[in-house]
Write a structure and sequence with these properties.
Elements: E1 8-15, H1 16-19, H2 22-27, E2 41-48, E3 51-52, E4 55-56, H3 64-74, E5 76-82, H4 86-113, E6 123-129, E7 139-140, E8 143-144, H5 163-167
Length: about 170
């Protein structure tokens, strides 16, 4: 997918822990200032994996419907990509990205063709839900890592003294 001439300025991947900081929480509302007649666009990708450092995140704990309503209220059209199978997720993410790019192009084309249009568009965004530590080792030293706070930092430390970590 070549995005160089798509009208997209930025694709921003935001983790759920970062999304809950005060500054970023407030910035979700900035979509209201994007003018499709002359501005580029931002395609936010909210990556929900359930943990920040060693604590659960709020956004990953609320229901699908509540999360959809929250971002719809901010001015987005949220598209969900959820799962844990890498092959399935790769295909779903590629299809969703393609759809979002086409939607952004449509919004910009319509706004630029009608000089009198003043309707604020509902911009697409992607909510990607995967397990924490996805595609990494499921366990390290007998401790669960995938889907756990343990995968947040460096679960495979001490490579010199634990050669099995290098193999993992």
């Amino acid at each position: 997918l070549d995005l160089r001439f798509s009208g997209i300025e930025v694709e921003a991947v935001v983790g759920d822990g970062e999304a809950e900081t005060a500054t970023l929480e407030g910035s979700w509302k900035g979509v209201s200032f994007i003018n499709p007649k002359h501005d580029g666009a931002v395609l936010p990708i909210l990556h929900l994996n359930g943990y920040k450092i060693a604590n659960p995140t709020i956004l990953s704990r609320i229901s699908h419907e509540e999360l959809e309503s929250l971002f719809y209220g901010y001015g987005y059209e949220p598209y969900f990509v959820e799962g844990s199978d890498p092959e399935t997720m790769h295909q779903a993410m590629a299809a969703t990205l393609e759809h979002c790019v086409q939607e952004i192009r449509r919004i910009q084309k319509e706004a630029r063709a009608d000089a009198s249009a003043t309707k604020r568009p509902r911009w697409p965004m992607i909510i990607l839900r995967t397990p924490k530590g996805w595609t990494g080792p499921k366990q390290v030293d007998g401790n669960k890592t995938e889907g756990s706070w343990r995968s947040h930092q460096v679960p495979l430390a001490e490579l010199a003294s634990k050669p099995g970590h290098l193999e993992l």
